[in-house]
């Protein structure tokens, strides 16, 4: 019986210290903090929706939902739900493609552009708050490790 308990405890510790668990915990904590910052600033957008807004913001022309899904490496259905919410909230404009009526072209509304510009300054400030706890060398090394993990997983 004691061996089983030790085995479970070892497995639990191993999982708690796994890459998946640690990255998940960091992501959850960062999104929670960023969502609180957005609410504090009166910006009615969730941190989870920011990548969609930023993809559209940094594009020179309207994008299809499939383009956004491909860029973010997310499923089209999830992107569609977020796009619909952001459209309903007045941040995105959805128009039918002139050449292919089956495609929706996504672009920012003026309030979407305004929110993106406010979000950028928040994101930079948030990043700076984190970076101040690291030396420049530590931060560079940390980012290098994350890039390396992405390359390994993408193989």
Automatic annotation (TrEMBL):
Source taxon at top rank: Bacteria
PROSITE patterns: HTH_MARR_2
Magnesium keyword on record: no
Residue stretches making up the HTH marR-type domain: 16-151
Keywords linked to the UniProt accession: DNA-binding, Transcription, Transcription regulation
Protein name: HTH marR-type domain-containing protein
């Amino acid at each position: 019986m004691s061996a089983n308990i030790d085995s479970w405890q070892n497995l639990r510790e191993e999982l708690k210290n796994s890459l998946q668990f640690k990255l998940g915990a960091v992501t959850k904590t960062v999104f929670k903090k960023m969502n609180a910052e957005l609410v504090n600033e009166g910006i009615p957008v969730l941190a989870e929706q920011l990548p969609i807004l930023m993809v559209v913001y940094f594009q020179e022309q309207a994008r299809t939902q499939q383009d956004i899904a491909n860029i973010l490496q997310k499923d089209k259905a999830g992107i569609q739900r977020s796009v619909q919410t952001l459209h309903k909230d007045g941040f995105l404009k959805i128009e039918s493609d002139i050449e292919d009526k089956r495609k929706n072209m996504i672009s920012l509304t003026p309030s979407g552009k305004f929110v993106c510009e406010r979000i950028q300054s928040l994101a930079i400030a948030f990043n700076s708050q984190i970076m101040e706890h690291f030396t420049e060398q530590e931060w560079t090394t940390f980012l290098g490790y994350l890039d390396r993990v992405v390359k390994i997983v993408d193989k």
